[in-house]
Amino acid sequence: KELGKGQFGVTYLCIENSTGKQYACKTISKRKLITKNDKEDMRREIQIMQHLSGQPNIVEFKGAYEDKLSVHLVMELCAGGELFDRIIAKGHYSERAAASMGRAIVNVVHACHFMGVMHRDLKPENFLLSSKGENALLKATDFGLSVFIEEGKVYRDIVGSAYYVAPEVLKRKYGKEIDIWSAGVILYILLSGVPPFWA
């Protein structure tokens, strides 16, 4: 069963034969991993997910496998879907609920930065809910644009998504602070139901 589609891959529901336990499996076609950089990005995403394993607000990484055609990333299944879809369904969150979600998002930023990772693409589509319940845990996913932070380095590549990208990224001169900007934009959307900037 298909759970979602991204720029590089498709995520499927998969079942572990020995236990019957359900997981999410992101399958990336090797045909899309054309350049040396594409392959390095894939390796880095796997390394970062392994490195962040065990953090409560980050999707748990189970393993990576490859066959002739694809690379498969197996992760915990978050049955509640994307935060983006939950915001669309609700319109916006109450201050109390937004504060709880905001705390989880800030915990992700803190955990990533404490462990030397800059996410670089925080947005509601990259947060999943552990279940369909109102008190579901919020978990970050999609570390495809993430990097290990090199202290003192000024980053210059343009990454991220419209609405959530910090001005410093567009100026090609940034550091890990850009994740805090993106978290602030998400919090604004949780409270108001609309993005703070339309340009």
From TrEMBL:
GO molecular function: ATP binding; metal ion binding; protein serine/threonine kinase activity
Tagged with keyword Kinase: yes
UniProt xrefs under SUPFAM superfamilies: Protein kinase-like (PK-like)
CDD domains: STKc_CAMK
Residue intervals of the Protein kinase domain: 1-199
Recorded catalytic activity of this chain's protein: L-seryl-[protein] + ATP = O-phospho-L-seryl-[protein] + ADP + H(+); L-threonyl-[protein] + ATP = O-phospho-L-threonyl-[protein] + ADP + H(+)
Residue stretches spanning the membrane: none
Alphabetical keyword list: ATP-binding, Calcium, Kinase, Metal-binding, Nucleotide-binding, Phosphoprotein, Repeat, Serine/threonine-protein kinase, Transferase
PROSITE patterns recorded: PROTEIN_KINASE_ATP, PROTEIN_KINASE_DOM, PROTEIN_KINASE_ST
EC numbers for this chain: 2.7.11.1
Residues holding ATP: K26
InterPro entries linked: CDPK_Ser/Thr_kinases (IPR050205), Kinase-like_dom_sf (IPR011009), Prot_kinase_dom (IPR000719), Protein_kinase_ATP_BS (IPR017441), Ser/Thr_kinase_AS (IPR008271)
PANTHER family per the UniProt record, alphabetical: SERINE/THREONINE-PROTEIN KINASE
Similarity comment text for this entry: Belongs to the protein kinase superfamily. CAMK Ser/Thr protein kinase family. CaMK subfamily.
Name used for this protein in its record: non-specific serine/threonine protein kinase
Phylogenetic classification of the source organism: Eukaryota, Viridiplantae, Streptophyta, Embryophyta, Tracheophyta
